[in-house]
Amino acid sequence: YPYIGYVHTLPEYRNQGYGKQWFKSLLENNTMQNYWLTIENLELEKFYTQLEFKLWKGNPQGSDEKVFTRF
User: Fold this and answer.
1) How far is CA 31 from CA 23, 28, 49, 56, 70, in A?
2) Cα–chain-centroid distance for residue 16?
3) Which of 18, 22, 39, 43 has the most crowded CB, counting CB atoms within 10 A?
4) What are the distances in angstroms from CA 38 to CA 11, 12, 16?
5) pLDDT truncated to tens, each residue of the chain (71 aa)?
């Protein structure tokens, strides 16, 4: 599955819906595709779960990263 890595929104553009719009466009235009991503900033977990990404239960032990998938 394609990996989505290091998506970053500049601070002055955060909380304005740009990231969500980008992801929704990607997902709506590629409905037959599955994706996975990792996050290091745990504050982003809510953002990705709102986009229907699910926490993958196979995260490496001792890692600060969380792995999310969307099937």
Assistant:
1) 12, 6, 17, 20, 11
2) 17
3) 39
4) 20, 23, 22
5) 889 988 889 999 999 999 999 999 999 998 888 999 988 888 889 999 999 999 887 665 666 778 888 87
Residues 40-57 as b/e (b if ≥16 CB within 10 A, e otherwise) read eeeeeeeebeeeebeeee
**Which residue, among 44, 14, 32, has the nearest Cα to 70 in the 3D structure?**
32
Provide the token pair at 14.
């955060």
The amino acid that residue 38 corresponds to is T
Amino acid at 71: F
The rounded mean pLDDT for the chain is 86
